[in-house]
Amino acid sequence: MNATGALSHHRALERLYASAPVNATFDSRCEILGEGRARIVFTVGTNVYHAAGAAHGTVYFKMLDDAAFYAANTLVTDRFLLTTSFNLHFTKPVKEGKVVAEGKWVSGRKRVFVAEARLVDAEGEEIGRGTGTFMKSRIPLSTLPGYSARTIG
């Protein structure tokens, strides 16, 4: 794919993320940083706390899965990927503030992809990490709301 096509695909993936109904629940945004790299920037608020006063594990999973997923989907321009497994490690509880999930593709270019992500709090400390396996689905990206074939101009 040429540079213009790659940029168009990356911006379309960012629009796809923004259009997902689940993302209206979270103060987050997706940034595609280049082939095989994605970042999810998220603001943790008390609305996602568990009973002991820190972010619930579902928040860790969502951010890490999304960052790894979008990093992997930068390599696939025709199909939506599906998460088939995800291994998650919690390393530190997080309270309110900005959190960043950095995802990067590790291996696979045909049907199955492996990507990892690291979650960092506002102080720059790691609070979690994970590795996911993703598989090409039968769902064309071009049929999904938010993803469009707009060109960069």
UniProtKB/TrEMBL annotation:
The UniProt keyword set, sorted, is: Hydrolase
Q: Which residues cross the membrane?
A: none
Q: Does the keyword Hydrolase apply?
A: yes
Q: Where, if anywhere, are coiled coils annotated? A: none
InterPro entries, per the entry: HotDog_dom_sf, PAAI_dom, Thioestr_dom
UniProt keyword annotation of Oxidoreductase present? no
Domain Thioesterase span(s) in chain numbering: 53-126
- The protein, known as: PaaI family thioesterase
